[in-house]
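1st attempt posting a full record on here, be nice pls
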Amino acid sequence: MKFLINTFTHWNEPPRARHQVAYALSAKYSVVFVAANKLGLPRLKTEKIHDNLTVFTPYFPIGNKIRYRLPVLNELYQRWLYPRISRLYRDFQVINFDFTAVNLNQYFKDIIFYCNDSFVAISRNINPAFIANYHSRCFRKVASGSKFCIGVSEMLTDILKKYNEKSYVIPLGGPEISQYKIDVIASPSRNKMINVGLVGFIKPYSISYNLINLLVEDEKLMVTLVGPIEGNFMNFITRKDKVRLTGPKFGRDLYNEINKFDVAIAPYSETITKNDQIGVGIGSKSFQYLSLGKPVVISNMAGLRNISMPPGFIYIAAKEEDFASLIIQAHNENSTELIRQRVEFGKNNTWEKRSELLIDIYSKNGSINQ
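the predicted structure (as tokens):
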């Protein structure tokens, strides 16, 4: 059994659902991860990550962020790329994470659309109407033309069912920490200064710099930001001396950094928290945090309405002003037993277990090539 995972994401990014699915499946199966194109003359590059996982990177004269927004360029790119990967990987089962990949089914059959975000709503929020309308058409065509669809939340799956009745929920997951040989810190710290950690893309669109400012003004809190910082985000931060920047981290380095957090956070911007069509999940970072035993403080949003977690796992801040006090509460309530429970939760909700569910859905839909 072999899988080709089609994406519009670069490989060397903070791990998202498509990266995690690729890693999880490659534990048992041969996997090719088709990354977003890099800028350059048209060519194809492959990189072996390990025996079962290959990253396939196209190069194209137009960068990915521009290309996927413009119909003519995106069409040209797909008609250049897909015949080439089809000749190389025709017998692979395709898992498609690119909601604009409208030409993919001309070269592969029985495609599975794996939807991990509210792409159309996001596009309507950040793009001109003609681009958002194009993305809406793409999403409908990709969903309706797929063998079946996967959504990472009930809300996303309900959207997918409008276009494809064979749509199923596979929740987000966390890493299998035992693979990285990390000793999880089993007892809560009692340091006077609380190490508050955030992992992800640090950019004004999705992360609230106002909320970060509220945290750094509290003398009990020190903030660690793990991941790429976009543009002028740090220009908005009032107390830079209270913020530690690590840059992007991956794999064992990333999880070692999370292991040092006292409390982990997901401080989303109002763009996400006040738009019920965008904040439709819980975010994969929360599963990373819990896998390492950390309490999580998260901004309230639509995707949390149907989430049920044991006490002491996730603290939901109704408004930004509540965040600091909830961090202190989470830190004070933390215990060896709660850490153990969170780590156990993580073990039962890994991406490896999610991949087993995916294989089961594949089998029930008659889509497995042995």
